[in-house]
Amino acid sequence: LRQRIYPPVAKAKEEIPIVGPDAGGQSMGWPAIGRAGDSAIAQLKVLNGDVEVKVATRIPGEPPRCEIWRSLTGPVRDVYCVVGPWADSIQSWAWMTPDEQDPNVHRFQFSIGPRRREEFHVLVNGSRSQALYPSSASGAPGGSLLRGPGENIEDLHWGVAGPQGVMMEVVLNLAEEDRCAMLTCRPLVVAAEAEAIEEGGAAAEVEGAEETAQQS
What distance in Å separates the CA atoms of residue 142 and residue 47, rounded to the nearest whole number? Predict the structure, then answer.
């Protein structure tokens, strides 16, 4: 089994983290910008599990150029991304955000489009050879068995439906033992709306208490 360290995107900028070692990373590499015949030096540094890659190039008549990429620090070392209709011409997927309280949880938010139905699957470290996907076509998040990481040969996707414009949140919980419940997708309750509901309930309780006091 080949183990690679690599960037999760092509032509990675310096803010893109190093991922791996794992079996992904096919055709992924760091850019060395220059002309044919220009010199380039690549340096790999591995210390206590942290990885750093430097690529230095020099074009005659221009100052030296050095780019540095680093692996993520802390318990979260992999990145997860959702492949779906949010793709654009530059990038075919969107990043998931690690939960600040639980490193095993990753989140992604999107809105239901005009078709009122969206489908998606997940990539580990941007590699199509390390996909997370349901066991059946248009599987329901939270109900369909999660498969992977591996190649999604059958091009299977989770499917969600709802009114246009409704915000949804995908939650991937790597610590969940139930592989059906490992990935869920539910309508997103905006914090402001939740606070308004709570405030409304509290106001109703106060009014009820005042009415009771007046009656007594």
Answer: 39
Q: What residue spans of 123-190 are helical by DSSP H? A: none
CA atoms within 13 A on the CB side of 99: 14
H or E element at residue 47 = strand 39-47
Residue corresponding to tokens 């692996």: 71
All residues at 6 or more sequence positions from 109 whose CB lies less than 8 Å from its CB, including other chains: 167, 168, 169, 170, 188
Domains of the chain, each with CATH number or no CATH: 4-70 (no CATH), 80-191 (2.60.40.3620)
- At 9-58, the pLDDT tens digits run 988 999 999 999 999 998 899 998 888 888 899 999 999 989 999 999 98
How far is the C-alpha of 138 from the C-alpha of 187, rounded, in Å? Answer: 18
Say how many Å lie between the first and final Cα of the chain, rounded: 79
140 vs 120: CA distance, rounded Å: 11
Under DSSP, the state recorded for 71 is: B
pLDDT at 91 over 70: no
Can you tell me the mean pLDDT for 191-208?
57
* Alpha carbons 147 and 135: distance in angstroms, whole number: 6
Listed in sequence order, the residues at least 6 apart from 145 whose beta carbon sits closer than 8 Å to its beta carbon are 134, 135, 139, 179, 180
- Work out the number of other CB atoms within 10 angstroms of the CB of residue 93: 22
